Amino acid sequence: MQAFKNFRSYFFRGMAALLPTILTIWIFVQCYIFIQDKVSIHINRGVIQLILLFSDSWEEQFLVDFWVDGPGRITGFFVAIIGVCFIGAFLASVVGRTLWHYVERNLMRVPLVRKVYPYIKQVTDFFLAKKNLEISKVVAFEYPRKNTWSIGLVTGTGLSKVTRSAATDFLTVFVPTSPTPFTGYVIMVPRAETIEMEMSVEEALRYVISGGVITPAEHLAFEASQKKQED
Question: Which CATH number does 137-230 carry?
C-alpha cells in the first residue's frame, strides 16, 4: 500500500513538472501542422503553377516532389508567417482597422457565430493583443460581502455623479475571476475601504489564474530557484 502511495505521488509530481512543457510543445506543433496542411501546401502548389506558367521545361512531378513533398514545403510555411505579419501591419493602419471593424460587425449578425466569436476574441485579445491597460495599482477590498476579501485592479476613479451624490472618493476596480482573468466584474469602491497591495498586476493575475496557489512570495522563490539552476 505504501509503495502504491509513493508511486502515485511520484507520478503526479512528474506530470506536474512535465505537463506544462509537453502542452506548450504540443500547441506549437499543432499550429505548425495546421499551417503546413491547410495553408502552406496551397502556397507551394501556387508556386508550382507559377513556375509552369513561365516555363514548360520543368517536369510537374519533379516540382511536386520538391515543393509539396520535399524540402521546399517549408517555403510555404514561411510565406504564411510573413503573410500574417503583412495582415497585422495592414490592420494597424486606419483603413485596415475600419475594414476589420466592418467585418466584425457583420460577423456579429450571424446567429451562431455571434454566440461563439466574442468569447474566442476575448481569449485571443487577452493573450496576443498588446493593449495598454490603464491599471494603476492592485487593491484588496471586502467583496462580495463583509469580511470576505477580493483582489482587484484599479482602472480609474469613480463616476463623477456617484462621487458627488455619495460625497465619497471612489475607485473603479476590475475584479478578475479565476481561472479566466479576462472576465470579471467592474465595480466602484470607496477609496477608504481599499487596501493597496504591494504586488504588480502580473503577480495579481498569477494569483487569480492559479486559484490563489501562486502567491507573490512563492513566485519570487520559484524564479530564484530557476535562476540558481541556470547558473
Answer: 2.30.30
Please determine, for residue 213, whether its predicted confidence score (pLDDT) is greater than 60. yes
Within the chain, all domains assigned CATH 2.30.30 are found at 137-230
Torsion sign across C-alpha atoms 40, 44, 45, 46 = positive
> How big is the chain, counted in residues?
231
Phi, psi of 131 (to 5 degrees): -110, 135
Residue 48, amino acid: I
Cell numbers for 119, please give them: 468569447
Please give the Cα distance from 150 to 140 (Å, whole number).
6
- Give the pLDDT of residue 23: 75
Task: Please state whether the peptide bond connecting residue 118 to the residue before it is cis, i.e. omega within 30 degrees of 0.
Answer: no
Cell numbers describing residue 54: 513561365
User: What residue has cell string 460581502?
Assistant: 145
Radius of gyration of the chain (CA): 26
* Strand spans (E) along 103-143: 137-142
What pLDDT was estimated at residue 134? Answer: 59
Is the pTM higher than 0.90? The answer reads: no
- Residue 3 confidence class, pLDDT cut points 50, 70, 90: confident
- 173 near 137, Cβ under 8 Å? no
